[in-house]
Amino acid sequence: MAEAWIHEPRVTLLAVTQFTPPSHIEWETDTDNPAQQLIEFAGRLCYRSFHNPSGRANAEYIGHLLAQGHLSVIEHASASFLIEGISRSCSHEIVRHRHFSYSQVSQRFVNEAEARMVLPPALEGDPEAQAIAESVTRASKEAYARLVERLRARYAHVDDPSLRRKLARQAARSVLPNATETALVMTGNFRAWRHFVRMRASEHAEAEIRRVAIAVLKILQEQAPAVFGDFTIRRHDDGSEVAEPGYAYE
Amino acid sequence: MAEAWIHEPRVTLLAVTQFTPPSHIEWETDTDNPAQQLIEFAGRLCYRSFHNPSGRANAEYIGHLLAQGHLSVIEHASASFLIEGISRSCSHEIVRHRHFSYSQVSQRFVNEAEARMVLPPALEGDPEAQAIAESVTRASKEAYARLVERLRARYAHVDDPSLRRKLARQAARSVLPNATETALVMTGNFRAWRHFVRMRASEHAEAEIRRVAIAVLKILQEQAPAVFGDFTIRRHDDGSEVAEPGYAYE
Amino acid sequence: MAEAWIHEPRVTLLAVTQFTPPSHIEWETDTDNPAQQLIEFAGRLCYRSFHNPSGRANAEYIGHLLAQGHLSVIEHASASFLIEGISRSCSHEIVRHRHFSYSQVSQRFVNEAEARMVLPPALEGDPEAQAIAESVTRASKEAYARLVERLRARYAHVDDPSLRRKLARQAARSVLPNATETALVMTGNFRAWRHFVRMRASEHAEAEIRRVAIAVLKILQEQAPAVFGDFTIRRHDDGSEVAEPGYAYE
Amino acid sequence: MAEAWIHEPRVTLLAVTQFTPPSHIEWETDTDNPAQQLIEFAGRLCYRSFHNPSGRANAEYIGHLLAQGHLSVIEHASASFLIEGISRSCSHEIVRHRHFSYSQVSQRFVNEAEARMVLPPALEGDPEAQAIAESVTRASKEAYARLVERLRARYAHVDDPSLRRKLARQAARSVLPNATETALVMTGNFRAWRHFVRMRASEHAEAEIRRVAIAVLKILQEQAPAVFGDFTIRRHDDGSEVAEPGYAYE
């Protein structure tokens, strides 16, 4: 029976900034988008310009910030995502981004004997390559299960059963492949997300992480169009999606 | 007529994390506090323990994270505050904290001729000291106004009136005192706020920033009691409030 | 007698990265600049390209990193500066940069009765404006001294003399002007310094911090020409210096 | 023939802070350790206490900073290490630390067909477990080589040979195991290193990363004894080394 490969990451929005305007400050804006309201509010505080002397709409105001490179203002808004169905090589690239907070499934603690595998995009439509990959990832999981069993016996003297499991699993995981599925919660402010998308939705990015970045971008474009609307998504030569920002500053 | 001193900072919550649990994951918790839900959700993902094998309530679960020092999990929740009525010496201390985002009233752009002054807590109840301070802060604002006038004349050749104002104000501000009021929007995750409160609500902190930290703490204890409830607020010898955390880890 | 204004910041290099190549790795480069050696070494590790397949000189190699935006590699090198003769308004802007480490003279602890004042660049050559500023900054220091005296009397019940001084000084400083001199040690990696110089040596930057950024840049261009050589320093309309980078990425 | 397992990480110091005291400041200290000199210098600047009113030796002075939790001062000193002979699961844990700079061997670019494997410490002295692991890691590398070959054929239409290699390798790496050796250059300041060692040399840390942390600690204790000397290294029940700090603050 064929391995049930994972073909696509699953990206789910968990949280995005809400905003309660302070009742003691007189201020009006033309959007009901809370994250964009907070950004405009914070920006206007710097200049005490709540009376909107230039008569800008919220989207214009934020566009101006992005165009001028006043990006610290968009840091007040943030978003959290649940990212599932990605490989451990993809998560290794993701967690290199240092301006985010992460909570990731731990291979030291979780039993990976039934872990699913993520198919690299480049293997789509190539049954022979998939067969090569499937055969060895299956063998890896079997070896993992055998090692866990041996190591739990070896650590039989450890009284605490959860410590015993941890000692066995953290060593046995060494034979698991990069393709092994992982999941994480990833939180960051809008400036960090703009940087992530710029780097990882680009055509130079690796194919799997690019899918994550595109999925994140699509959600953020819905959630805060004034902050992410300048990114254009287009088809690459190979049919995959890539995105590029309209504004240069980071 | 006496200067209308500012006696207390004003701290207003602008935003705190909301949470939408993903519909495809089966999970129940006993709190309806959204920030605490997100924290528990992220923590449980690491161990794939959504079935709650230890039968912990949400507050217990978070208490366990704090006690063990697993503080990265509380980073998924964040809060934004509007902080008004603080002096520039206080804001100079505040912005030294590098894990926050700030938007602050700019003395390069804003007209400070009518700026209010913040009374240092130690001058409360000492009319003579207040008179000394008032006399010189008033003289400083007058000197500021005269310098702005001279400099705008000096920069008469600059066509753009807003640039001309900026050039005048950014130089004239040099005579404004530390007591000059400022305001800022300050955003950070719960781990950063715990660190801020630990450092700045302590008895060793400067009196004005301590008031800010105590005001922040009181709001966060309402908003996320499981995350900030271990801090105890007490009266210091001099009648002011100080706070100390129950958990040691940062 | 005229106040002895400070006219220029003083920027002194305290430390810059040294490098010991590991004896077990065969590798040659054409520079004896240690910071640039470390950067090339770290970059080559990523591709296991110590044999230099493209035959690039060190400066070319680093230029390629900067042009491609592979800026994380230049983070391995860092520099520390002693920055003296700047105002407290300037230091307030400086410490907003969150990727640096700072140690700054504390107005809570140090006696500022004899503090010197920093002349805003825009007041150069304007004796009348200087007279306005001098008169009020002198009055501020006198008020400071009187407040310290009163507060030390008020805190006579505090046994610890250094605590008593701190309580007095941290309140009395509220009347000191932005022009008051401060000094700090500032440490950051080369990526952070490139960002600082880009933002603060630009023509849009405030005049005093621009002088700091230009002074830092001149030293770093000597210390690591391959990393900072793309910045061009030119005269602005008003005779002051501004700088712009050759490479776009941050 | 048996796989040549890697049994230990190799940790090599590449760089540590040097210091040039500014000639215009009168100051003496009793150490010739440059990193410790810089730390004392920066600390003394905050209080303008270059005359050493308490008569403290350098090591005492730094011990006092650590005891009081004034840890920002030790951030001025930094160290870079080359870390080799670690597994990809170990590097995945390492790069979660966000206050460091990293340059790591890229599996997207480098040919891993001859990659060596890191033996998990728990498999030492268990030839049967090693045989299980060896058999499957060898199969993984063979599958990797076959996939690279197929994918380079599939990407034959890509003109640029280095892009073609990258496309093949970044997909084929999905079958490589966690045990695959990697190497990285890791740079951070002394505060970040103290945190890393505290977390990763503890008895709760995973066995392989603990070895890295202990090796780093031993070098830093030589390089800057006043900053790292409070850590005590001892033997754990299982014969491995663990370390604990003497000072509580982070």
From TrEMBL, chains A, B, C, D:
Cofactor mode of binding and number, as noted: Binds 4 FAD per tetramer. Each FAD binding site is formed by three monomers.
Entry GO MF terms: thymidylate synthase (FAD) activity
Residue positions binding dUMP: 93-96, 104-108, 173, 200
InterPro entries hit by this protein: Thymidylate_synthase_ThyX, Thymidylate_synthase_ThyX_sf
Domain of life per record: Bacteria
Keywords: FAD, Flavoprotein, Methyltransferase, NADP, Nucleotide biosynthesis, Transferase
Pathway: Pyrimidine metabolism; dTTP biosynthesis
Binding site for FAD: 72, 96-98, 104, 189-191, 195
Residue positions of the active site: 200 (involved in ionization of n3 of dump, leading to its activation)
SUPFAM superfamilies per record: Thymidylate synthase-complementing protein Thy1
Subunit and interaction comment: Homotetramer.
Family membership: Belongs to the thymidylate synthase ThyX family.
Xref: NCBIfam families: thyX
Name of this chain's protein: Flavin-dependent thymidylate synthase
Annotated gene: thyX
